[in-house]
C-alpha cells in the first residue's frame, strides 16, 4: 500500500514499476486528498488526482463509497470511477466529465469502496459500482459475533446473492433488503451478521458536490 499524495508521484511510479516487475498488487491510499480536493478556493478536484494516479500507476484506490460513513455524492463518485476504470469515457456533465476522454491502452485502476460498510450495504454497493470493483470490509468482517472467517463468509454470501439477483433483472435499489433477508434464510453466518448490523444508515449531506 502506498499513499500516493504524501509519497509523491515520482515515488509512486517507481513503486508501481517495482510491483509490476515482481508480480505484486499495489493498493493506493489517498491520505491528504481532502486538503486538496475539498478546498473550493484553491483546490484541485479529485477527478484530476484520479487521472494523475492512473497515469502514475496503481491497481486500486478508494474512490468514494456513496453509502455508509465516508461521504461521496453518487454522480460525482461515478465520475471518478469512470475515469479510473473505463477505457473510453463519454462526456457526462452530471458526473463532472466535461469532455470525452480516450485512455486507449493505458491500464485502468479498480475503484475501492470501504468505510463502515456491512452486509446491509451490499445491494446498494452492487447497484452503484456493478461487479468490477473492490470491497474492503474491516469492521464489517471483524465485527461478526462468531469469528472473522465467518464474517467473511457472510459478506461473500451477501455479495453473491446481490450479483445473482442483479443478473436476473431484479431492482437492487428497491428490493435490496429483501434480497439480503432471503439469502440469510439459508446462511446462518449472514443471518448473524444481519442481526448485528441491522439496517444502520448514515444520513448527512455530501461536502463534495458539483459546482453550479
From TrEMBL:
Protein name: Ribulose bisphosphate carboxylase large chain
Gene3D superfamilies: Ribulose bisphosphate carboxylase, large subunit, C-terminal domain (3.20.20.110)
Organism domain of life: Eukaryota
Pfam family, one: RuBisCO_large
SUPFAM superfamilies in UniProt: RuBisCo, C-terminal domain
Occurrences of domain Ribulose bisphosphate carboxylase large subunit C-terminal (ranges): 1-197
GO molecular function: magnesium ion binding; ribulose-bisphosphate carboxylase activity
The species this protein was found in: Capsicum annuum
Regions annotated as coiled coil: none
InterPro entries associated with the record: RuBisCO, RuBisCO_lsu_C, RuBisCO_lsu_C_sf
